[in-house]
């Protein structure tokens, strides 16, 4: 770690005495960022969304594992009159009173390579006729079957390529969300820090102007200062009081915003918690190679994964448009054993063969160009996606390049404004001493005061810009260049 030249800012900015009744907590920038990640609503929302995406992916993986299920209807009782057609064509309404219960146990497995599924089945059926007090059993001791789409779009094959990318994308989005929280918290941190600096400047100026005005009154009596200069100092006192009131209100608003974002709770007395912020003058001396930044961004960012996913999905849609506009067929086949009897055990005694084969198909003959239109639309969308992704990549590269060069420039700005602030503070002290000795005009003293305040604010604003650029680069690359490791 390399420390900048001591400013005269000090490390801490105390709150003014009128706020002393509230509980005060000293916080550094790193502590505020960590608190935001852990307890802010935005951080919790990111964690909840990531948990949702995790279970969605777990559900997707489960679809490709064997599924064991038991289904049926037990009981299935009917008592009614049913329509029965007689041999002569007339209709008779016959009474029925029965129970027709079925239990079916099946084990199924999807086949991603072909888009079909295979199953193993066992079934038992019981029929009770309560009108003649008879019972019959029917069953399938064993059956194996296949459902296989032919010449059709294979959704499972494409899902196995796109869903892992979608899950990886969601993981990186979670990290990005936390880095965005850090960037937002940094902005709010410096909003409050700048307002606290302005508050301290206003308090100091009010006190100094009061003192200088009293000295000027004594000088007027001695004839060492004009009435006009005294009135100018009196106006400075009034302006300093107005600036102090405005600075207090601004600091209150900034403190409320930061406290709300951090989801900070009031402790004990019920008074709102006050933050005493530390000026982050410690900067790590590290360099950022633009090529490394680009490589890490394309390796880590969710946008990079999204580029690949979007192209895959466009290819998938084109494949779907091609295959669903032509011959569609499905093969359904099953082989097994079946039997019937008066007792459940009879079903398993010398069962008979059971076979089933079926091909269902649909062949469009006259579509008036609909199939071609759908295919060409999908092809055009695919080309548009490829072009859009390519443009997004170039824009992404430009963002990385701009952010890397901006960070280095802002680091130099921090050094220069820190030196300028130190010089301005020393110059103001000299000007104040010279005024007390009647060796400086009120106008020159006012100029020194303005330069002092401007240099102090510029130094803090330069720090704000640097740290925001620092966290923005982390967000864009998901890489920590201070420690040279990926952000996990």
UniProtKB/TrEMBL annotation:
<keyword id="KW-0813">Transport</keyword>
<keyword id="KW-0472">Membrane</keyword>
<protein>
    <recommendedName>
        <fullName>TolC family protein</fullName>
    </recommendedName>
</protein>
<keyword id="KW-0732">Signal</keyword>
<dbReference type="InterPro" id="IPR051906">
    <property type="entry name" value="TolC-like"/>
</dbReference>
<comment type="similarity">
    <text>Belongs to the outer membrane factor (OMF) (TC 1.B.17) family.</text>
</comment>
<dbReference type="Pfam" id="PF02321">
    <property type="entry name" value="OEP"/>
</dbReference>
<dbReference type="GO" id="GO:0015288">
    <property type="term" value="F:porin activity"/>
</dbReference>
<dbReference type="GO" id="GO:0015562">
    <property type="term" value="F:efflux transmembrane transporter activity"/>
</dbReference>
<dbReference type="GO" id="GO:1990281">
    <property type="term" value="C:efflux pump complex"/>
</dbReference>
<dbReference type="GO" id="GO:0009279">
    <property type="term" value="C:cell outer membrane"/>
</dbReference>
<feature type="signal peptide">
    <location>
        <begin position="1"/>
        <end position="22"/>
    </location>
</feature>
<keyword id="KW-0998">Cell outer membrane</keyword>
<keyword id="KW-0812">Transmembrane</keyword>
<keyword id="KW-1134">Transmembrane beta strand</keyword>
<dbReference type="InterPro" id="IPR003423">
    <property type="entry name" value="OMP_efflux"/>
</dbReference>
């Amino acid at each position: 770690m390399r420390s900048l030249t001591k400013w005269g800012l000090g490390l801490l900015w105390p709150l003014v005495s009128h706020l002393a009744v509230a509980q005060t907590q000293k916080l550094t920038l790193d502590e505020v960022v960590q608190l935001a990640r852990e307890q802010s609503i935005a951080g919790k929302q990111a964690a909840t969304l990531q948990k949702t995406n995790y279970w969605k992916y777990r559900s997707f993986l489960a679809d490709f594992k064997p599924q064991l299920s038991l289904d049926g209807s037990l009981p299935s009782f009917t008592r009614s009159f049913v329509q029965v057609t007689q041999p002569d064509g007339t209709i008779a309404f016959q009474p029925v009173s029965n129970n027709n219960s079925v239990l079916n146990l099946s084990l199924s497995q999807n086949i991603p390579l072909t888009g079909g599924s295979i199953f193993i089945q066992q079934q038992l059926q019981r029929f009770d006729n309560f009108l003649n007090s008879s019972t019959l059993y029917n069953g399938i001791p064993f059956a194996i079957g296949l459902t296989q789409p032919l010449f059709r779009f294979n959704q499972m094959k494409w899902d196995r390529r796109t869903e892992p990318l979608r899950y990886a994308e969601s993981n990186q989005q979670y990290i990005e969300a936390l880095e965005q929280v850090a960037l937002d918290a940094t902005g709010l941190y410096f909003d409050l820090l700048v307002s606290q600096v302005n508050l301290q400047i206003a308090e100091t100026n009010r006190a100094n102007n009061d003192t200088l005005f009293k000295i000027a009154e004594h000088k007027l009596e001695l004839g060492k200062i004009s009435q006009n200069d005294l009135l100018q100092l009196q106006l400075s006192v009034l302006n300093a009081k107005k600036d102090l009131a405005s600075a207090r209100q601004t600091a209150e608003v900034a403190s409320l915003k930061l406290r709300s974002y951090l989801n900070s709770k009031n402790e004990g007395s019920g008074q709102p918690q006050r933050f005493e912020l530390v000026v982050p003058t410690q900067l790590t001396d590290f360099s950022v190679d633009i090529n490394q930044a680009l490589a890490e961004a394309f390796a880590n960012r969710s946008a990079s994964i999204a580029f690949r996913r979007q192209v895959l999905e466009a290819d998938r849609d084109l494949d779907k448009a091609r295959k669903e506009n032509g011959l569609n067929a499905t093969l359904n086949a099953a082989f097994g054993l079946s039997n019937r009897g008066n007792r459940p055990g009879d079903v398993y005694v010398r069962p008979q063969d059971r076979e089933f084969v079926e091909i269902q198909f649909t062949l469009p003959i006259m579509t008036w160009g609909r199939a071609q239109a759908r295919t060409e639309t999908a092809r055009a969308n695919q080309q548009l996606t490829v072009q859009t992704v390519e443009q997004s990549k170039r824009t992404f590269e430009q963002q990385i390049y701009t952010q890397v060069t901006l960070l280095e420039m802002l680091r130099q700005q921090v050094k220069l404004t820190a030196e300028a602030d130190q010089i301005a503070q020393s110059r103001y002290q000299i000007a104040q001493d010279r005024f007390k000795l009647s060796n400086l005009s009120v106008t020159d003293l006012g100029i020194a005061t303005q330069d002092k305040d401007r240099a102090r604010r510029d130094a803090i604003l330069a720090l704000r810009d640097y740290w925001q650029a620092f966290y923005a680069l982390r967000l864009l690359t998901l890489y920590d260049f201070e420690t040279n490791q990926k952000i996990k």
